[in-house]
TrEMBL record:
Gene3D superfamilies linked to this entry: alpha/beta hydrolase (3.40.50.1820)
Coiled-coil region: none
Listed SUPFAM superfamilies: alpha/beta-Hydrolases
Organism superkingdom: Bacteria
InterPro entries for this protein: AB_hydrolase_fold, DUF3141, PHA/PHB_synthase
Protein name: Poly(3-hydroxyalkanoate) synthetase
């Protein structure tokens, strides 16, 4: 009879390990060691751009990168991509050699620019959405100056989508085509857990910013996203990594490491920017109320948008359900025949940079944009 402190299953497992042939034991040990080495290496996540580029402009939290097309540039107008500012890095636009939105547009002959939003430092804690629209305009003006082209295409990913929509409503004369992807425009159009969380008292979000001395720590934002799929982020992904090591799936392991390096990397947002978004986007839904929200005295009215519009949304997106993004068509003044809706098969991140979405959906976007005069 075993004592109460001895677990029979653990004892049996220990005996099996003891009598396991040496080669099998050593193999298991090496796999376990690699498993922990991988997880340990991800404690300090790193990101890097995959496509050659140059920094052509920098101001405050904006760094504008130009990705020269290695082939002949045949598209008439350049593209500016606005990645999201949700506590992650801007590398989402150029995630990997096989999953790069930049490279999709390169293949279609475009000259591509990306706004890299830097981690905010204390001196920039008071930058708000008005400042980010100003910085976006600085990027647009730099592109126009360099190319001598009056109107450009603008693409917003997730949060970058409502930013692109706001910018276009204020500077329609500078934009040829507006593209938004997985972007919340009307948060009341469909329920989502993230919108429910945003209904917590404003004091809660102000407290988070206060903890960062005026900055919003991206780690808090990441924790919020993870809580929406806790089983995936705290259990299943670790099981998947072990299974890949057991099977010797080196390609899968590389993909796991690359994604974790991007996803787990966090940076700071200006506290004012974060609170502006909580109030105006997620609480008051002000993008749907023409003239209510003002930036530096200028009223935001999506009805000022008259250019061609392309709206992308993911069928499985639990962060921005499709109706929240597709609602944009109700508020713009663009003729119906110049509005295109694309429903991808993926979820939120899959829509933004998934292999299938880049191959099927984003190539369609590129083809349509080449038709814009």
């Amino acid at each position: 009879m075993l004592g109460p402190a001895v677990d029979e299953k653990m004892l049996k497992a220990s005996m099996n390990l003891f009598f396991m042939p040496w080669a099998m034991w050593w193999d298991k040990y090496q796999k376990l060691e690699r498993y922990y080495q991988i997880l340990s290496s991800l404690k300090n996540p790193q990101n890097e751009w995959c496509t050659p580029n140059n920094i052509i402009y920098e101001h405050q939290t904006l760094r504008l990168r130009h990705f020269p097309n290695p082939e002949e540039t045949t598209a008439r107008r350049p593209i500016l991509i606005l990645p999201p500012q949700a506590g992650h890095s801007s590398h989402l636009a150029d995630y990997s050699p096989a999953q790069s939105l930049v490279r999709v547009f390169h293949r279609y002959g475009y000259d591509v620019y990306v706004t890299e939003w830097l981690s905010a430092t204390p001196e920039y804690k008071d930058l708000g959405i008005a400042d980010y629209i100003r910085l976006t305009d600085e990027a647009v003006e730099e592109i126009r100056r360099r190319t001598d082209i009056y109107k450009i295409h603008i693409i917003g990913q997730c949060q970058g989508g409502w930013q692109a929509a706001i910018y276009t409503s204020l500077y329609q004369e500078k934009i040829a085509t507006l593209v938004i992807s997985a972007s919340p425009i009307d948060v009341k159009a469909a329920p989502a857990e993230i919108i429910e969380y945003a209904q917590l008292p404003l004091e809660f979000f102000e407290y988070l910013v206060a903890r960062g001395n005026g900055l919003m720590d991206g780690r808090y934002i990441l924790m919020g996203f993870k809580s929406l799929q806790a089983d995936e982020h705290y259990v299943r992904k670790y099981k998947r990594l072990w299974d890949m090591i057991e099977k010797g799936d080196e390609d899968g392991i590389k993909r796991f490491i690359r994604f974790e390096n991007w996803y787990e990397y966090t940076q700071f947002l200006p506290g004012k920017f974060y609170l502006d978004a909580i109030r105006n986007i997620f609480k008051d839904n002000n993008l749907t109320k023409p003239g209510v929200w003002k930036l530096d005295g200028r009223a935001i009215d999506l009805g000022n948008i008259t250019c061609p519009v392309i709206i992308m949304a993911g069928k499985k997106d639990h962060i921005t359900p499709p109706p929240q993004a597709f609602a944009l068509r109700k508020y713009v003044s663009t003729p119906e025949e110049n509005i295109i809706e694309i429903l991808t098969e993926g979820g939120h991140i899959g829509t933004l940079m998934g292999t299938e979405s880049l191959r099927e959906d984003w190539t369609r976007v590129a083809e349509v944009m080449k038709l814009v005069i």
